[in-house]
Every structure is written in structure tokens, then in C-alpha cells.
Amino acid sequence: MQIVTPYLLFLGDVPDALAAKTALGIVDWRPEWCVGQLRLPGCKADAGVPDMTIAEAKAAGVATMIVGAVNAGGVLPAHWVATIVAALDAGLDVASGLHSRLADSPAIREAAERSGHALHDVRHSSERFATGKGAKRTGMRLLTVGTDCSVGKKYTALALESGMRRAGLDADFRATGQSGVFISGRGVAIDAVVADFISGAVEWIAPAAAPDHWDLVEGQGSLFHPSFAGVSLGLLHGAQPDAFVVCHEPTRSHMRGVAHPLPSIEEVIALTITCGRLTNPAIRCVGVAINTAALSDSEAASLLRETGARLGLPAVDPIRTGVEPIVAEIVRLYGGSDKPS
Fold first, then answer.
1. Which of 20, 32, 249, 275 ranks highest by number of CB atoms within 10 Å?
2. CA distance 264 to 216
3. DSSP state of 91
């Protein structure tokens, strides 16, 4: 789906900032797209952009109202419906990352039909994907992979986009999750795609491109996670990455939601290369991104130094240190060509 910018961020009446993490993430990475926010009475979150009415947002050039809040179960609260209807009637598209489909509400569906404006359910793409073909396509691709879920794969890919562009490289973030779609304005929530079409959907997200163009594909799950490995594998085959970065959270003893132990970074590198060679025999690891938020400055520095030396790869924390060492490694290996040196 293609979501038209700029945005009005609808926060509803959520009780805290965590419940508005979708909207706050968009502001972090695409502040230039965020014209304002709309909050209902009692809202305890603030995205740090001007409060606006729907009429003010329309006058300011807003194209899409983003339902930028989440709740348990991803359901649409009944008392939010009137605001969404008003946005459609005012001439805005509406996009949501909730599990509930916007059009499942008769009032919202009728407003969309009446106004002719689009409803985007980011978790439920209307695109029809082909099965993956695995044929080599032009352009360069990097995939972020993880030792577990929720270890910073999206953040790392976005940080690499910024770092690579600063280095003069032609690079674009490619979203595979709901928040990433809002941040990029385009993409597919891969975990909602029927299994047979996962790799084909990723081929659609990152199609053939100019030889020196980099698509930075947001990873999902982990090849070692018993719940989500199927999504991770389909994503790996469809991305056909030339390069990958392993993302890791060092304080975990087991993977989220299951009792399985966390794999080592070395195990993730080895399995990613083994599986990834099916669609790109030249796949290689170019760095490690470690989330050191739970560590002191000295502990973080020591861990990054030790990991880099052990693996012979740049090891960074995208927040603490930035990703420039990984960008430098990409430039060293690939330069501006479509072949590694």
C-alpha cells in the first residue's frame, strides 16, 4: 500500500506514551511528515507536534490521518469511530495499524464510500502478491536479521538508511511491519501475508533497481524463533540480500514468549548464510547491531569491542555509537558497484 503524506496523528485517549508508540515512532523518523496530532479528552500521550482539529489539519495540507495508537488486542474503540468518520468526510484518507479492519465499522465504511477517500489497514494489505521466484534481480539489498524478536531490526535499518545517505549512497528503507509502513509511507506487514506469498511480497517491496541502489529491508522475527521462523525465512528468500546485519539484545537468556535459549550471533550468521544462499549465493554479514540500553557506558564499550574483535566485523549500537562503521564496511566491500570487491 502507498500512504499519502503528510500526516495528522490521531492518538485517541490512550493512557500513556507506550500506547502511542506507533505515532511517536513516526515522529522520531519522519518528523517532516507529521503536521499535527489530534487527541481526545483524557489522552495521556503527546507526540510533540501541534494539536490540531481535523479542519485545521486539512487546511494545513494533511493528506492522511494515522491512527497512531494501539491497545490490547488491536481493536478499534467504538468512541473513536466518530473522529475517523469526520476525517473521511473532511477529505482525508485514514490509515490504521490495528488488527481490526476500519471498514468492519459500517459508519467508517459508509463514510469512505461517500467521500471517495481511502482506508489503509496496514496489517491487511489489499495487494495480490505472486509467489516468490528467487531469480537474481538488479540492485543491492541489505536485510536486518535478529537473534530474537524486538531487538532493533527496524531501528537499525532506518539508522543505516540515514547513515548511507550521508555517505552519498543511494539507499531506501523498505518496511515489512506496521510501524515501518507508516514511517516509509509504503510497504507490507509481512506477518499478515499468506505463507505461500511471503517471499513474493518481499520481492514486490524491493524490486529490481539501479545497480548501485540499496534497499534496506526491515527484518522480522528470527530464524531461531519457533513461533516466527517461517516469516523470517520467507523474508530472507524474498529479500535476496547481498548483505545482512545481525541485531542482538545481550541481556536475554531466552527468546521472547518461549523457553528456547537465545542463539549466539555466530549461529545466526551461519544459518542466515546457509539459508540465504538459496536466492543469493554471495550473501555475507557486514556487521552487528547490539542494543546496549541495559548496560553502562563502560560495559557497552567493552561488549562492542569484544564482539567486533571476535567476529572480525564492525559492532555498533545504533543509538550509542551510530552505524558509521557498518556503512564504512559496506562502502569498502561494495563501493558504488553492484558487485562486492
1. 20
2. 23
3. T
Listed in sequence order, the residues at least 6 apart from 185 whose beta carbon sits closer than 8 Å to its beta carbon are 2, 3, 4, 5, 30, 33
At residue 28, the 3 state secondary structure works out as helix
Amino acid at site 225: H
Q: Within a 13 Å sphere around the CA of 248, how many CA atoms are in the beta-carbon half?
A: 23
Q: By three-state DSSP, how is residue 163 classified? A: helix
Compute CA distances 339 → 45, 138, 167, 278, 332, whole Å.
47, 11, 18, 18, 12
Sign (positive or negative) of CA dihedral 193, 183, 221, 256 = negative
Query: For 310, how many CA atoms within 13 A lie in the half-sphere containing its CB?
Result: 11
User: What are the distances in angstroms from CA 193 to CA 122, 155, 277?
Assistant: 11, 22, 23
CB 66, CB 10: distance < 8 Å: yes
Query: How do the residues of the chain divide into helix, strand and coil, expressed in percent and rounded to 5?
Result: 40, 20, 45
Name residue 292's amino acid. T
Residue 75 is placed in which grid cell?
481493536
Rounded to whole angstroms, the Cα distance separating 265 from 108 reads 47
Domains of the chain, each with CATH number or no CATH: 7-121 (3.40.50.720), 140-334 (3.40.50.300)
- How confident is the prediction along the chain (341 residues), in pLDDT tens digits per residue? 688 999 999 999 999 987 888 899 899 899 999 999 999 999 999 999 999 999 999 999 999 999 998 776 678 999 999 999 999 999 999 999 888 899 999 999 999 999 999 999 988 877 889 999 999 999 999 999 999 988 999 999 999 999 999 999 999 999 998 889 889 878 888 888 999 999 999 999 999 999 999 999 999 999 999 999 999 999 999 999 999 999 999 999 899 889 999 999 999 999 999 999 999 999 999 999 999 999 999 999 999 999 999 999 999 999 999 999 999 999 999 986 444 44
Are 190 and 202 spatial neighbours (Cβ–Cβ below 8 Å)? Answer: yes
Give the other-Cβ count within 10 Å of 311's Cβ: 16
SS3 198: helix
